[in-house]
Amino acid sequence: MTTRSMTSTRLVLALTAAGILGGAGANFVSGTHARAEAPSIVAQAVSPATSTMGMPGINGAPDFSQITQRNGAAVVNISVSGLRQVSSESGEAPAAHRRAPQGVDPSDPFSEFFKRFEGPSDGQPGDRASPVRGQGSGFIVSADGLILTNAHVVRDAQVVTVKLTDRREYTATVLGSDPKTDVAVLKIDAKDLPTVTMGNSNDLKVGEWVLAIGSPYGFENSVSAGVVSAKGRSLPEDSVVPFIQTDVAVNPGNSGGPLFNARGEVVGINSQIYSRTGGYQGLSFAIPIDLVNKIKDQIVATGRASHARLGVAIQEVNQALADSFKLDKPEGALVSSVDAGSPAEQAGLKYGDVIRKVNGQPIVASGDLPALIGQATPGEVVTLEVWRQGKREDFAAKLGDAVTKKVQMAKSTGAADKGKLGLALRALEPQERRVAGVDGLLIEEAAGPAAMAGVQAGDVLMAINGTQVKNIEQVRAAVASNKKSVALLIQRDGEKIFVPVQVG
Questions:
Q1: Bridge partners, 312 (sequence order)
Q2: CA distances to 326, 430, 449, 498 from 474, in Å
Q3: pLDDT at residue 438, rounded to an integer
Q4: CA distances from 459 to 9, 331, 336, 464, 493 (A)
């Protein structure tokens, strides 16, 4: 999902990798770009009645030694090597030298979230092939050598080596990888291998004990434990994964390793961390095993994974937008544009709609929508509950394939200070209308609350609160009838976004 901002700068929100890239040393960097949510963490002991792993350990905690003894041999170390093209024109720098994108303050805490531990191992950018070396973890799911890991662990790899706990090494074949969910499936030529037991991530409860086994910083078969901090986390960017958040110590090298519940069943793949230093800081994220199994089955059968597409650009609903659209609370995904010919357009969706539910499942944060749609199957018909012009409506959409075009996500700017709108408007000239490709009013000057919200001269005002604008009198009437805020649909450089402006 593509993130938009009113500065027209597209900020790429990268997944956090827990793999080590960069040669013999642990060459890692800090994270960048995302909202840092900090849920409370309540440690909840698992009673002996709910555990099949024997007597509880100290203070009622599960006996982690039994879980490790039973499953440790099925956890593998993965090392990769290959070449990556680095172009001087692209300006790509080695991971150890990367900084936040232009226009982002590196001191901003939002610039400290989620960055891959990957990139060329040394040297400066240039028109050349740069060596890539890295390590990660994985786990065996079939006795004949099927292995699961993260897609980012094997990205750009020409040679993938799997090392077992008994020190045997195999060259693995990558059957397929899915960057959208960060899942990859490997195969080694071996028989009678130890395997893990698969669990059900839907049964996980917040506060439940969980255990990770992997190779942090290359220390093979290291064990760490903690609790489930939250479920269903939506993380940027383009994420279709409802992540499991834990406080399990996960570090570079744990990527692709299993997350176990107290019964010794795999409930997730450790994939991402929040970090300002590159190491563990109490926020780790795992891909639910139910989603992983779906992707694995598709890759084994066809060599690729498929994801559904709705065909809308969406943005977060904050309190100002909720007031503008007369929503009872700031929840849902606000549609800022609909792709021509997309399933959304065919279903009748329009800009200004707020999608509240998909097949009865609530959309609280806008990121919940791509997670639900991305896990659906292309061709599947979904029911959408939509808030339009102050009332609820239901729509049925037959989803397309995300391979054809990515779903986009617009990111809302902050609300402005209270005051008058502060816009100087005029009708578009015929030539300007042809260039813009839309109807609306040209913003000749932006001041006051509108300017504070990010509106600029040269923008085209297309709609207010979801209603297309045709003249200046209509704008004045809309502002006069809204005591708190109005939502302006702005087009700039071909991109559209709703901007909340407080007018009370």
A1: 338
A2: 19, 20, 19, 18
A3: 85
A4: 15, 27, 15, 14, 8
Three-class SS state of 83: strand
Domains parsed from the chain with CATH numbers: 11-305 (2.40.10.120), 308-410 (2.30.42.10), 423-502 (2.30.42.60)
Q: Are 134 and 118 in contact (CB under 8 A)?
A: yes
SS3 letters across 327-342: CCCCCCEEEEEECCCC
DSSP string, 90-151: TT---GGG--PPTT--TTSGGGGS---S-S-SSS---SEEEEEEEEEEEEE-STTSEEEE-T
Tokens of 432: 């300007």
Q: Maximum distance among all alpha carbons in the chain?
A: 79
Helix (H, G, I), strand (E, B), or coil: what is residue 261? strand
Q: Active-site residues: which are they?
A: 152, 182, 255
DSSP class of 312: E
Element (H, E) at 190: none
Can you tell me which residue has the tokens 């066809």?
302
Pairing mode, strands 333-338 and 312-316: antiparallel
**CA distance to 120, 133, 149, 158, per residue, from 84 (Å):** 7, 10, 20, 10
- Of 491, 16, 484, 433, nearest to 250 (Cα)? 16
**Three-state SS string across 467-484, please?**
EECCCHHHHHHHHHHCCC
Predicted pLDDT of residue 46: 37
User: pLDDT tens-digit profile of 64-75?
Assistant: 999 999 999 999
Strand bridging mode 485-492 / 441-446: unpaired
* Kind and range of the H or E run holding 433: helix 430-436
Distance CA(151)–CA(245), nearest Å, equals 19
Mark out the alpha helices in 325-403 (DSSP H runs): 343-347, 368-375
Residue 175 has pLDDT above 90, yes or no: yes
Residue found by looking up tokens 């993260």 in the block: 150
Reported as a single tens digit per residue, the pLDDT across 124-149 is: 444 555 677 889 999 999 999 999 99
- Compute the distance between CA of residue 126 and CA of residue 130 in angstroms, rounded to an integer: 9
- Residue 60 pLDDT grade (very low, low, confident, very high; cuts 50, 70, 90): low
